[in-house]
Design goal:
Helix content is about 40%, strand content about 15%. It has about 290 residues and is an alpha/beta fold. The protein has a single domain, classed as TIM Barrel. It is globular and about 50 Å long.
């Protein structure tokens, strides 16, 4: 899967991807770079404590890594958010630039960096150049780049095969080592047309925990190497429980029913999320 990479890049890739099965369970907590203190991840240091032991990699912003993550942690890959420059107060969120340089990411011992592209959006050109610039920078350090096919507000309905195939292929054509995109009907075609491995985004919180398990299972069956989920994990009442169920599908080849049984068995008081603050209507809307 990663046979044509240098030793250094391969070593870093396998801090993100589990070398035992070439699959990946990534937890995304980088939402704060444009959403601020997102419900369920208001206190990242505390909110990740029971989750980090179950994952292969953590996708997060540079400032959260340095302020909230214990530098003694091992066996977890760090994928740093490298683009930003907007917020949920903007008319749309596609007006991004690089907020992190490859050299600084390496200094922080990152396993990889993530760059969002907004294909079809107003600032499409700018975000594609962001990806190109980061890939060129990262090549000097054998640093893997994750291309993220973001959609923003205006493109929120573009989670369909034709669009995702286009955006994923463009990211791969530019040189992304892994593409993060959304699941859709006919997803196996998106995977087949993308020459680099794909991980599936969770997106906004789904209606039920079973929807999360079915999304994970279907994505793996269609050829994705894993998922990178955030709100569907840490906004759930039992985050560690649903994370273990998702892990069983990805690394244990569990069925949806088997994963649901794990979810039920792990939905105990010790795994229950204890919110420090109530989520108001505006927070939920955002």
């Amino acid at each position: 899967m990663f046979e044509n990479m240098s030793w250094g890049k391969t070593n870093r890739i396998y801090q993100i991807v589990n070398q035992r099965d070439d699959r990946c369970l990534m937890l995304a907590i980088d939402h704060g770079y444009f959403m601020g203190p997102t419900h369920g991840m208001e206190t990242p240091r505390q909110d990740t404590l029971k989750l980090i032991t179950h994952i292969d990699a953590l996708m997060l912003s540079p400032g959260i890594l340095t302020s909230c993550i214990d530098p003694h942690w091992r066996s977890v890959g760090w994928v740093l958010r490298a683009t930003g420059g907007n917020s949920i107060l903007d008319e749309d969120i596609d007006n991004e630039s690089l907020i992190l340089q490859a050299e600084e990411a390496v200094r922080m011992n990152a396993s990889g960096v993530a760059v969002s592209i907004y294909v079809g959006a107003e600032h499409q050109h700018q975000t594609l150049i962001n990806l190109s610039n980061m890939i060129n920078q990262a090549a000097k350090f054998d640093l893997p780049v994750l291309g993220v096919t973001a959609v923003g507000k205006r493109l929120s309905d573009k989670r369909e095969k034709r669009y995702l195939s286009l955006a994923s292929r463009i990211a791969a054509e530019y040189g992304a080592d892994i593409v993060k995109t959304y699941y859709c009907e006919g997803f196996e075609e998106v995977v087949t047309k993308c020459p680099v491995p794909i991980v599936v985004a969770g997106g906004a919180r789904l209606n039920t925990p079973r929807d999360v398990l079915e999304l994970t299972y279907n994505a793996i069956q269609c050829g994705a190497i894993g998922v990178d989920m955030g709100r569907n994990i840490w906004q759930y009442e039992y985050p560690a429980a649903i994370l273990q169920a998702v892990k069983a599908i990805i690394h244990g080849k569990a069925s949806v029913k088997e994963a649901a049984d794990i979810l039920e068995s792990q939905s105990v008081a010790s795994n229950c999320r204890k919110p420090l603050f109530e989520a108001g209507d505006e927070n939920i809307k955002d």
